[in-house]
Amino acid sequence: MAHFVLIHGLCLGAWCWYKVVSLLQSAGHRATPLDLGASGINPKQITELDSVSDYALPLTEFMASLPDYEKVILVGHSYGGVIISLAMESFPTKVSAAVYLSALMPNHHSPIATALAEFFKRNEAEPKMDSQVWFDDGPENPPTRTLLGPKYIAAKAYHLSPKEDIELATTLLRPAKLFMKDLSSESLLTKEKFGSIDRVYIVCKDDLPINESLQKWYIENSTAADHMAMFSKPQEVCKCLQQVAEKYN
Ligand SMILES: *[C@@H]1O[C@H](CO)[C@@H](O)[C@H](O)[C@H]1NC(C)=O
Ligand SMILES: *[C@@H]1O[C@H](CO)[C@@H](O)[C@H](O)[C@H]1NC(C)=O
């Protein structure tokens, strides 16, 4: 039995996991979906979030409350990938693995903001439709807040989802801050802590905002192996081969 802790993306909340939570529980696992700051039914407003740490606080408090011997599997969707990465850095001994579900996956070689900047660069020319983006630091600086609109999510994010879930989302979406400035700092993630935890990426081929090529960019950008990985990363190669053996033997 595993304990999964599920972290939503921007504007969403714990509610977006309701189907996955019940399936995981039916399969005999524990599943804990959390609302981050000013998300879902979290009582804070975004004006009360001064930093990415304020936003991530519900996960930080949850991780701190776990007994020393207990480990969880962190799962992050979309921007949730940023938040689970910060928790991996703060609580490396309490995380047995991290799962990125079509998520922003930062690495310890570049500032976390690099992952976010790549997302913006690739979506710059895409129509925003009824989604809103605010530039509180001036138009020459990166965006600071966003709120996804019902037409945008129906066309770009939930285009393969049941209509009922689009209606649900439309009533529950809340504005979110992006915290680009906080995430520009160099050493938020280290090889020793964040880098010590196994990461799994679930690629979603039909995702539009974080499309397959961007998902693969996150994977490749975090894998600092040269062409001869069997010399430079023998342990990682061996671990992957063992997983193949477990699956196909
Ligand atoms: C992903 O989006 C980029 C634009 O950011 C586009 O050039 C590319 O063709 C898309 N790739 C896939 C696999 O959809
Ligand atoms: C990841 O992307 C950044 C920004 O484009 C770049 O500076 C860095 O060299 C890339 N790292 C790898 C391992 O590809």
UniProtKB/TrEMBL annotation:
Domain of life: Eukaryota
The species this protein was found in: Hibiscus trionum
Keyword DNA-binding: no
GO molecular function ontology, one term from the record: methyl salicylate esterase activity
GO biological processes: jasmonic acid metabolic process; salicylic acid metabolic process
Signal peptide limits: 1-22
Entries under InterPro entries matching the protein: AB_hydrolase_1, AB_hydrolase_fold, MES/HNL
Pfam families according to UniProt: Abhydrolase_6
Record-given protein name: ARABIDOPSIS THALIANA METHYL ESTERASE 10, methyl esterase 10
PANTHER family named among the record's database cross-references: AB HYDROLASE-1 DOMAIN-CONTAINING PROTEIN, METHYLESTERASE FAMILY MEMBER
Residues annotated as domain AB hydrolase-1: 4-238
Record key words, sorted: Signal
Residue runs in coiled coils: none
